[in-house]
Amino acid sequence: MTSKIATAALLAAIGMAAGAPAFAADAPTVEKCYGIALHGHNDCAAGAHSCAGQATKDRDPKSFVALPMGACGKIAGGSLKPV
User: Which residue ranges make up each domain of the chain?
Assistant: First the structure.
């Protein structure tokens, strides 16, 4: 489980380092990946809380991290829709 979380954090860091924009509806190079965010390190959520940095637990299925297109499907537990 720790390696899955580390992988998610690494992919998120790579996305930010590469200059990936924060999630925006018109940014086709980014997708919302639910269920992989660490406590307090999410980009936003689906009705669970107002927005970034407010995830109350690791791998909250309603919180997402913005990742490059296609990356979410490669992460165990990652989902393109909130659970």
Answer: 2-74
